[in-house]
Fold:
Amino acid sequence: MSRAIGGALLALVIGCAATAVFAAPAPQTTNQVTPLVVSPRPKGAPLPDVTMQVNGGDGGIGQNVAIWPVSAREAGLSGYATLACLVDIHGLAETCRVIFEAPPGKGFGAAALALRPTFKVAPRRGPDGPVDSEMRIAVDFKMPQVVSNLQEIALARAPPVGTMTGDSAPNVGNHEISAANLRISDNPVAMRRLTMMTEPAWAAAPSFEDWAKAYPPEGGGVEGYAVAHCKVDREGRLSRCSAVKESPAGHGFGKAAVALAAQFRASPEAMAAAPHGAPIEVDVPVRFAPPGPAIDRTIHAPAWIAGSDPQTLIRELPANLAAKPGSPGAVVQCRVGEGGALTGCEIEYTSPDGIDFDEAAVKLASRLRVNLWSAEASPVEGGVIHLPIRPGAAQQAQN
Structure:
């Protein structure tokens, strides 16, 4: 599974679920959250595999950040979106697309896509363990509701059942509601405007060695996952990072992700496209592999740079090489070099279509460029990519 990265930007409002951890000053909040209310799916919404709720609280899969479309938040609108996501064996949503949105056209689908890095779900399992698969992830955006104990107090102060009421009834007992015991909460979350970098292209990212060293001492040998939310300056540097996702909790993965985030830098091209005004912010997902004798440097889910991706460049294959449907094609092995360029490309499995196709496949692979952080939330520079190239793919890309 792979995707093309173009440095997409999205105007949103954002807030933390429990404490003010982002750059802008915010009123003190509490750890009390609105109780989770299970509501029916909107009409026409497909049956999801997983549902998360965004209401300023934890929706059940560990996200600690609320993202909302600006106009919808200002109008006090709740919303719902369903995404079809390619979920890998680690439970990470590598790519997602919107397949349902209600109300339509209010931006909830785009906001759900911006939350994608915080998704960590149980992957589907095959006979031999977890497998990559497409899953439907629903995101239920619930505006915070006012919660009070007024009804409880009123019932406690009501006269006993069967007693007389009206002008002729004696005024026996205390029926007034005292504000001393009244508790009202609307689960406030301090929200602020920002431009979210939803598909960041990186000019710098941690190496495999940096990634391995970042595994926390208290990790306990388990695989971890964390997301650092950071502010991005005009030069692409990250600062004021805070952990908004940690799984499992209490093993130091959130703190480790924040420390590692300082080594990322957004590409000049991405920053040139960023609007001025609202702050630019980004989520940095990090998967922490358990320590082992050797680091697996195979890149299973490269995120290609837009314009330097296989689907774009394969259009340039000569037409005569694209006219052999059913051929398995060739597999080219490359190393990821500086800046994400593929280097040292060579045929790993030759094509039955002949040496001309093999040579064209190697030339094509050598022109590809991959983002410096994979869709599996791990490093790529110095890693190895095994790239299948089929003769029929060029014709399919051109149609």
